Amino acid sequence: MNITEKLIKSHLVSGEMIPGKEIAIKIDQTLTQDSTGTMAYLQFEAIGIPRVKTEKSVAYIDHNTLQTGFENADDHKYIQTVAKKHGIYFSKPGNGICHQVHLERFGKPGKTLLGSDSHTPTGGGIGMLAIGAGGLDVAVAMGGGAYYLAMPRVCRVVLTGKLSPWVTAKDVILEVLRRLSVKGGVGKVMEYAGEGVKTLSVPQRATITNMGAELGATTSVFPSDEVTRAFLKAQGREEDWIELKADDDAIYDEEITIALDEIEPLVACPHSPDNIKKVSEIKDLAVDQVAIGSCTNSSYTDMMTVAALLKGKTVDPNVSLVIAPGSKQVMNMLAANGALADIISAGARILECGCGPCIGMGQAPATNAVSLRTINRNFEGRSGTKSAQVYIVSPETAVASALSGKLTDPHTLGEAPVISMPEEFMVNDNLIIPPAPESECVKVVRGPNIQPFPKNTKVPKEIKGGALIKVEDNITTDHIMPSNAKLLPFRSNVPYLADYCLTPCDPEFPARAKKAGGGFIIAGQNYGQGSSREHAALAPLQLGVKAVIAKSFARIHMANLINNGILPLVFVNEWDYDNIKIGDEFVIKYAADQIKGAAQGQIVNVTCVKTGEEIPTRLNISERQRDILLAGGLLNYTKESNE
Predict the structure, then answer these.
(1) Cα–Cα dist 521/580, whole Å
(2) Omega before 271 cis (within 30°)?
């Protein structure tokens, strides 16, 4: 077997390991962050299980750390108290980004990890089966429930050779995105193999698995080998290591080969992570802002490289350079060895250990600015400035550009610094709060911003509604439910957020949906790509959306729609998309019967009220998902199952 099959087989609860068939796996660990965590814990409380049943569950505060009002602080207090009560470890604000900290302190090779953040696959860098999911799926897993998914195909990515100086792991994953696109990993696990794997450190591997999310992949995974062992030993966790490798005769569904020594520094141009060019191809692009950090490139070795390149130099006067180390551990070590002083002396602004600029939580660029960032996503408007042009680069390219004032190939800096992994990391977990041994003594604190989340009802005899909006291909969760410094504080207030649903596509959509009493969303290819945020399903539910009819869906968003009882219908004939106009009225007759038939592969017909014409669609669901939809969502289904 390959590594993916070994991880799945050792955790298989039900189903057959046949690509495309639904399987259920046991979850060992979970993580949440504060942007999605409040809702996940509200849902966990609604399920009614007193204490988590996982081996380890951790709640991180890393997204909503900009406190311009009471809302974020109130949510943090709620998460801290609910975590303490229900057996969850709590990582305080300032301790770092969930994926960076989890890799450092909690991740274990051979274990499963389910996180309410789409970049949870970072854990694949140490040989975990780490998957991003919606908050409700994570809540169910915390309660001991299995996680259901379609058995993925496994793509073997063979790495040969060794990275040349100035070429990085960021360039490796950008090369994969160049070849496969943001849809190229859908339904797959990217499993890395080959002699080149041994040349990559754990932080480099984690950069690659992190951005596997941009491929649409279920997850990505590396072997757990001596490199992994050395990393865990340096973290004081050698006892957590196990060897994990593919059998010599392992079979894969597909394979690609990447020669590491042939890659050049790459850049993802606006506004998609797969819009890849060579840095050397882009001439005289003036840069206004450079942001180094995020869960993709904020490790100790990344930051030490940045410090070495900045030492004794000064940032171009026209560039704003901001740097956010990924964890308190990294910040402590930079401060202790003097590297932080080198960064500050060069003119960089030091941010809190958190997500920050990556999600538009501060550091929004100027109007029409060019911003180079070491992040994983450059969707339009995600930075907080709709007109900004965001380019994704490696830390080395970012520094070279910050010094020159224009996009610059790092080869121009001369000899590349060699940064070694430390034999021992500075370990200080005093910002990780363990849960209370007894739940009864803990009172959960709820601020006034925490509002009840919308809940669906059982499927009616007929589902009626109009086409409320029609959107194009590759609509992201940032389009569906914007995530910026103004809106993130209201992640626990879905009624408020709903007024901003899909407004980047059509500012009138929320008002139109309310006036119509709900209806249908019409969409193109890859609808819902991007983050795991469940709010991209909850806000439409709040507005009465009953179904989304699209050419295709991104994996996590489709699951979130099903979990909230919204039908994710796929056009059988793509030309039907072209013929639909906003305001067209539709009805799904005998809805429950059609949903039942869909689980057997039958067509779901959507009837145009005006013409009587039937639009054939597919509802690609399992029998379990059929029952979830019929119940009006996963929460209702879970409660019914436990009664």
Answers:
(1) 11
(2) yes
Using CB atoms within 10 Å of the CB of residue 293, give its burial: 0 to 12 exposed, 13 to 18 middle, 19+ buried: buried
- Please say whether the beta carbons of 531 and 118 come within 8 A: yes
What's the chain's Rg over C-alpha atoms? 24
pLDDT of residue 491: 87
Q: Return the amino acid letter for 329.
A: Q
Whole-number pLDDT of residue 298: 95
CA–CA separation, 510 and 221 (whole Å): 40
Q: Please say if the pLDDT value at position 642 is more than 70.
A: no
One-letter amino acid at 364 equals A
Taken in order 123, 128, 133, 139, is the CA torsion positive or negative? negative
362 pLDDT more than 90? no
Contact 152, 135 (CB under 8 A): no
Q: 34, 42, 40: which is closest to 66 by C-alpha?
A: 34
Confidence of residue 299 (pLDDT cuts 50, 70, 90): very high
Looking up tokens 């609604």 gives 46
What mean pLDDT value characterizes the chain?
A: 95
The pLDDT score that the predictor gives to residue 638 is: 86
Find the helix or strand (DSSP H, E) in which 42 lies.
helix 34-47
Reference 234, options 169, 159, 299; nearest CA is: 299
Whether residue 41 contacts residue 75, with contact meaning beta carbons closer than 8 Å, is answered with: no
For helices 634-642 and 623-631, give the axis angle rounded to 10 degrees: 100
Please check the confidence at residue 498 and state whether its pLDDT lies above 70.
yes
Question: Among the residues of 91-201, which ranges form H helices?
Answer: 98-105, 135-142, 169-180
Question: pTM for the full model?
Answer: 0.93
For residues 348-372, average pLDDT: 92
Residue type at 151? Answer: M
Asked whether residue 442 carries a pLDDT value surpassing 80, the answer given is: yes
Buried b / exposed e along 392-412 (16+ C-beta atoms within 10 A)? bbbbbbbbbbbbbbbbbbbbe
* C-alpha span between 447 and 75 (Å, rounded): 7
* d(C-alpha 549, C-alpha 107), whole Å: 38
Residue 360: what pLDDT? 82
Strand intervals (E) in 179-319: 188-193, 219-221, 254-259, 266-268, 276-278, 289-292
Q: How far apart are CA 559 and CA 622, in angstroms?
A: 11
